[in-house]
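Trying the structure run again after the queue cleared.
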Amino acid sequence: MMHEHTPGAPILFLRNVTKRFGGLVAVNDVSFDVREHEVMGIIGPNGSGKSTTMNMISGALKATSGSIELQGHDLTRAKIFENARFGVGRTFQLVRILPQLSVVENVIAGGVFGHKRRWGREAEDFAESLLDRVGLSHAIGKGVDSLTYIDQKRVELARALAGQPEVLLLDEWLAGLNPSELRVGIDLIASLRAEGRTVILVEHVMDAIRSLCDRCVVINSGAKIAEGTPQEALSDPEVIRAYLGDA
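Done. Tokens:
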């Protein structure tokens, strides 16, 4: 389903979200909205709280305080599987695929547990169409142990898409790819963007942030220090200082 790529109304709202681990404040009073059909980047130095923020949106972690709402559903009160039901799909920093299942079965799993559920032959057909969509039609009959790293990442992406999420979280999906794979990966995310999908991207690859994101939020030491277009955010003096220090 193609949309003109114009961000719509906000559908995901983070309000004063804080996460404490004992005495450590990993995310501190962070607020931002994500609009439908928008690619939003979350960037910042290592250890700044980006993955913790993604984990709270996906339900893997519960916020200590604040609220995260997706189309009327309070994700901070939901059980982890409910976040997927309510429309959150995700990939992980380190690829997580199910080694005992085939490539197709890995993708079907995303449909069975996702936002819009499919079963049986319908689920299998949909899984195969998604594998084709991410450039993996050649791997449809294979086991996952035969796949290259980028192809494992593509399986994980297809699995996330199988639940037809309202919001797709890509947590450093481009990490670990060589330069030619990186180009393929950026093009693949660009094609999701062109379809009008809503994507949140945690990424260290600044070329990807610049070329893919409508807006980005910059987090440093758990706090939001900037928000705007990639050009605005990356030229903010506080952001430059966060990445490069005061030198």
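The first helix runs from residue 50 to 58. Worth checking whether this holds up in the mutant runs.
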